[in-house]
Each structure stands twice: as structure tokens, then as C-alpha cells.
């Protein structure tokens, strides 16, 4: 039998590039997502997966064939697909009598399932049904979360983290105003999660700042939470651990207030203001006699020459 800790050595240059791409990095790549269709998925679930894939492209992989698996009972197939396609996020759609229009969203840690939340689709409006202009492929969306449940409930807090990882897109160093054209709005209210997608329209306002309008472009989803599979606190804390090289070094004598203003404290020796160098002007210069006596007292002014 082969040892479990054997090291795989690439035999071709292509395999070597693939292994280097999957090696641990200080700054991780944009997370890819795989969208998997269950063995008995209906038209509603298939349409949801296609529309989510359209929003997530090009950082997504859509499996068109049906896969007979149950993620809450057996996770080996998901872990296999995750390692095969190098995806750390997944969305699984299925449909049956007990759980109709079922959607499972989850994330991986070291190619093992970390968090997994099951959602039920109660209402769905696809991209094709809304006859408005769409955002181009690969547009980075702005994410908005409304509702106290995203902060009060642990399950909703984990769901919020999953949705942020799923739709956040690549990290960009600069933001262009014209590039802010897609908004994803999630609302938690009355035990349901409402997902809405809008396109940002910049209108003329008569000044430099444009007037902003939101236009519904789809897809639109009404979801309800069902089963959850959450990682333990220790494992979840381990997944959030950052390498020491990325942690910012603490700088001495620098502090920030609640508004983000930076303050610096400077330590200086005691100064003698009498020796402080001021601006040189002819009117401030001392005469030679004043330099001899110090204050210039007892010195008679110069006599004017008589004609």
C-alpha cells in the first residue's frame, strides 16, 4: 500500500503549473464556485442555478449533468468535485416531495465542507422574465444586507458570510464611479430571505454628482431557511486564521479615533525659545554696541554731524 503522506511530483509542465496554482498563497485567489444539479432537479432549480452562474461568471463552474447525491448525508462527492475543479464554494440544487425547490449553499476549507445551509425557493423570477438591460459579465456587485437577523442569529450570520464570499468577486485596488453598476440586496424579514438584483443608472442632476436610480434586472428570489450544517467554533476560528506575514505590524505612538482619523505622538527634547532661529530681517539686527552691553542701556545715540 502507498503511504498517505506521499508527495505528488508532476510529470509534465502543465501538471507543474497546476500544482503551483493550487499551492498555499499569502494573498488568496478569487474564490471559485461550483454549481451542481441534483438527480431530480426541476425547471425552477435549474433556472436558479443558470442565473446564479450568469452573475458569478467567470469565477464559477456549472455542472450540466445530474449528480445523484445528498450533501447532508454524504459529502464525499462534493469534496471530490471541489478538489477536481479547485472550487471553495458550492451551490447544490435539488427537488423532491419532502423538500421542494431545494437549494444548498456552502463553503470548503482544505477541500472539506465547512459550512452548509439549506434554503427553500418559494418564489423565483429569472433574468429572462425581466425585460431590462443587464450588467456585463464579470461586474463586481455591491452587497447590501438589511435586517436585524443577520446580526442577532448565528445561523443568519454564517449565511451572510457565505453570501459575501459567494458574490464579492475579485479584490480591486481602485474603484471607478462608472463601474458601480450592480447591486445585490438581501433582506431578512419574517423568517424569509429576499434576494433582489438591481442595475445602477447614473442620471443627470445638474451638478458633478449624478442622480442614482435602481432598475430591477433579476434574478429575484424569495428564500426560507431549512437545515444547517455549521462548523464548530474551533474549526471556524482555524479557517479564519491569517499568516503572520499578512498581519499589520503595530506602530508605536499612532492611534485612531472612531472616525478613522490618525493621530501621531511626537517626543521632543525641551526647547529654549530664546535660541529659536527666526526670520532674518535688517530691522531686527542688533547693533555692535547692543551686542557688547546685551540690552543696549547707557549707550548714547550717534551725534549728527554739524554743517
Automatic annotation (TrEMBL):
Record field: compositional bias (Basic residues): 277-286
Keyword annotations of the record: Nucleus
Annotated GO CC locations: nucleolus
Any coiled-coil regions, as ranges: none
InterPro entries reported in the protein's UniProt record: Brix, Rpf2
Residue segments, region Disordered: 270-307
UniProt domain Brix: residue ranges: 31-234
Main localization category: nucleus
UniProt subcellular location: Nucleus, Nucleolus
Pfam short name (any one): Brix
Molecular functions per Gene Ontology: rRNA binding
GO biological process, one term: maturation of LSU-rRNA from tricistronic rRNA transcript (SSU-rRNA, 5.8S rRNA, LSU-rRNA)
Family: Belongs to the RPF2 family.
Protein name per UniProt: Ribosome production factor 2 homolog
UniProt organism field: Alligator sinensis (Chinese alligator)
Lineage of origin: Eukaryota, Metazoa, Chordata, Craniata, Vertebrata
